[in-house]
Amino acid sequence: MVSESTLRRVERFEKGLELLEEVAQVRIEEYSDDLRLQSISERNLQVCIETITDLANVIIAKKGLRVPSTYKDTMKVLQEDGILSKKLAQELEELVGLRNIIVHAYADIKAEMIHENIEFFINLLKEGLKGLLAFCKRNAIDP
């Protein structure tokens, strides 16, 4: 049984992905000139990344794994325990780094970089959430 809180987070994650997919269809010229579109993509990337890290931290706590030293370290902890592949963990760590830039160094964000990579980010987010939820199901972890 998945908790109500997790269900709400997954629903919000899916809505965020829908918005990101809409933004991905916009031409780069329009995206670069539209702060509203940039804000939509940045906020929804942040929410989706945080959904994954929240779920990762639930798994870490319920399995009694080492406490991550940083937000990015969360993915490494899961990789060390074989929950995530090294490749997926590294890619998710990079996304967590992007989330940190969005939250703390927002003036340094390059709109073109976000837009150029948005499809990759979407696919990575889908893969990450799917993998973590499948792990929870296989191991009877109620996130």
Description:
With 143 residues, the chain is an all-alpha fold. The protein has a single domain (4-139), classed as Up-down Bundle (Four Helix Bundle (Hemerythrin (Met), subunit A)), CATH 1.20.120. It has helices at residues 4-24, 28-33, 35-63, 73-80, 86-104, 111-138. Helix 3 (35-63) packs parallel to helix 6, helix 4 runs antiparallel to helix 5 (86-104) and helix 5 (86-104) packs across helix 6. The longest helix has 29 residues, at 35-63. It is globular.
> Which class best fits the helix and strand makeup?
mainly alpha
CATH class: Mainly Alpha
> What's the main sheet like?
none
CATH fold field value: Four Helix Bundle (Hemerythrin (Met), subunit A)
Poorly predicted runs are none
Mean pLDDT: 94
Name of the CATH homologous superfamily: bsu32300-like
N-to-C SSE string, H for helix and E for strand: HHHHHH
CATH-level-2 architecture: Up-down Bundle
Number of domains: 1
Q: How many β-strand stretches? A: 0
Q: How many helices in DSSP terms? A: 6
